[in-house]
Predict the 3D structure of the following.
Amino acid sequence: MSEHGWGPSGRDGRGRATAPQEPGDTVWRLRSRACWREAAELLRPAAERDPTAALARAELLIEQCLFTAANWSQAEQALRLAEAGATSTEQRAAAACARGFLAYAASVLSARDRLDEAQAALGRTSALLPPDAPGRPLLDFRRGLVAENLLRDPTAAWIAYRRAHDGAGERGDDLLRSSTWRHLAALAAGDRERAREGFEASLRLREQLGFTVGVAPALAALAEVSEPAEAARLRAEAARLVKALGGVPVWLARQLSAARTPGAPPDGRIGRQAQGPIS
């Protein structure tokens, strides 16, 4: 049920049930409402002694970076703690996967080019994980992000997303599946009906899970393959959500604002931005 970090019903970043449900459910509610810092603080005591909690906290703060394009140092510190505390092969693989994701986000959203670091970290993750490991779908998804938005290789991205999509379905990771639906749909934009089906599935899953902070990007994506009147309604709804959550995701807020500005780029991207959805 969780793309990364803590998810609904007390599940961890690998999709496994955890007990007790608290603080897992509370962390999920905070995360889903863009309160990453509060969720991370809730995990801080456990993170100092438990490598799994340390990784979950790092993933929360990396996700905050992805939505805010800020707070990089906090995420880096949390990830270093998780890396230092990892003792098992699975924990080391998960920390390497998070390292690759942080490097990817920094490459897309900041002035730093960390493509080599992202590829090296994800390659290390792959070497550590057996083919049927629970962490494989998330690794495949993140490799797809790098292929699509940093390497500009849509074929490699589609293959990676497809593997992630199937793996997430097998493991019941609906939040990850909401992301793979969206990215596969974006790559199928030439087939309007197929793209619309994927974007609708992504939006439906995020609404069902209560992943509020992820609903606005899903609405904006669906608007791209909708008729003008419907597209305007979807974008207006996305804009209201972004405003209600304090202006996040910042890249979507800029995109929606640029789309209303005469002379703005037709795709609404500002500055150094990815060519497809970034998360």
Summary: DSSP finds 13 helices and no strands in the chain. The CA atoms of residues 54 and 82 lie 5 Å apart.
